[in-house]
Design a protein that fits this description.
Shape: globular
Largest sheet: 6 strands, mixed
Strand order of the largest sheet: 1-2-3-4-6-9
Number of domains: 1
CATH class: Alpha Beta
Number of helices: 14
Order of helices and strands: HEEHEHHEEHEEHHHEHEHHHHH
Distance between the termini: 43 Å
CATH superfamily: 2-enoyl-CoA Hydratase, Chain A, domain 1
Radius of gyration: 17 Å
Structural class: alpha/beta
Number of strands: 9
C-alpha cells in the first residue's frame, strides 16, 4: 500500500487553501473564501502558485483534484490585492512573479490535475481550472477571463492555452469582448473537457481522478509531460501577455475598470478578473 498523503503538512505550508483526501492517492485542493465567491487573497495567490511544486515532488500524491468551496470555483483576485498592485510597486512585482509561477508550476507538475468547476470561474481561479489536465464543468458554470473588462491585457493563463483549446477565432472573441461562457458552451468549443449537470460535477471529476490514479504513474506523467510541450512552445507568448497585463496595472484604465467591476460584482457574481 502506498504511503498516505500528509494533509497536515499541506495545511501548514499552504494555510490559505483547504486539503482533503478525495480517494486513495487523490489529494483534494479546495479554494475556500466562500463569503467572497472564493476570491484569491494575496496569501491564496501565493499558495496557488507554489502548491503544485510540492504536489509534484510528493510521491504519496498520484492525482490532484481542485475545486472551489461551496457553489463557486473562484471569482479571481480580490479587490484588496488588485488595489495594492496598483498602488505598490513591490506588490506588483511579487504578484507578477507568482502569476508566472502559477502557470508554469501547473504546466510542469508531473501529477495529473483534475478540476471541478461550478458557479463562477474567473481570472486567477480560471487559470487553475483550465490549466488542469482534465476540466469538468457544470453546464451552468459561468466562465469569464475578466482582464480586459478590468482594463488590463488578458494575461494569466489565457494566451498560453485558450487558442490551443478552442482556436484563435474563439479565443479572440471571448478574450476581447469578455463575454461569459456557460460550461455547456465551453465544452462545445473545446475549452473544457466535459460539461455535466451541476449536481454531477464533483462525482464526475472524482471518477476521472480515480481512473487516473489507478493507471500507470509513469505513463500518466510522461504523457502529460509530452502533451504539455504544446504549452511550453507558447511560453514566449504567455510571458509577453503577462508583462503587458502587469504594465496595465500602472496605467490609468485599470482604476476606472476596477471601480466598474466592483459595482458589477456587488450586483451579480462572476464579473471580475
Amino acid at each position: 500500500m502506498a504511503d498516505p498523503i500528509d494533509l497536515e503538512s499541506y495545511r501548514k505550508e499552504f494555510p490559505s487553501l483547504e486539503f482533503g483526501l478525495a480517494a486513495e492517492g487523490v489529494l483534494e485542493v479546495v479554494i475556500a473564501n466562500e463569503g467572497r465567491l472564493n476570491a484569491a487573497t494575496e496569501a491564496m495567490h501565493r499558495d496557488l502558485a507554489l502548491v503544485w511544486r510540492t504536489i509534484d515532488s510528493d510521491e504519496a500524491v498520484r492525482v490532484a483534484l481542485v475545486r472551489g468551496a461551496g457553489e463557486h470555483f473562484s471569482s479571481g483576485g480580490d479587490f484588496a490585492m488588485i488595489e495594492r498592485m496598483i498602488e505598490d510597486e513591490a506588490t506588483l512585482v511579487r504578484v507578477w512573479k507568482e502569476a508566472s509561477d502559477l502557470v508554469y508550476n501547473l504546466v510542469n507538475c508531473s501529477k495529473p490535475v483534475v478540476s471541478a468547476i461550478r458557479g463562477t470561474a474567473v481570472g486567477a481561479g480560471l487559470a487553475v481550472a483550465l490549466l488542469a489536465d482534465v476540466s469538468v464543468a457544470a453546464r451552468s458554470a459561468r466562465i469569464l477571463d475578466g482582464h480586459t473588462r478590468l482594463g488590463v491585457a488578458a494575461g494569466d493563463h489565457a494566451v498560453i492555452i485558450w487558442p490551443l483549446l478552442c482556436g484563435l477565432a474563439k479565443a479572440r472573441y471571448y478574450l476581447l469582448t469578455n463575454k461569459p461562457l456557460s460550461g455547456e458552451e465551453a465544452e462545445r468549443i473545446g475549452l473544457v473537457a466535459l460539461a455535466v449537470d451541476d449536481a454531477e460535477v464533483h462525482a464526475t471529476a472524482l471518477d476521472v481522478a480515480r481512473t487516473l490514479a489507478a493507471g500507470s504513474a509513469t505513463a500518466m506523467r510522461f504523457t502529460k509531460h509530452a502533451l504539455n510541450n504544446w504549452l511550453r512552445l507558447a511560453g514566449p507568448s504567455f510571458d509577453t501577455s503577462l508583462a503587458l497585463e502587469f504594465l496595465g496595472f500602472r496605467l490609468g484604465d485599470v482604476r476606472a475598470g476596477l471601480e466598474a467591476v466592483r459595482r458589477k460584482r456587488h450586483r451579480a457574481p462572476g464579473t471580475d478578473g
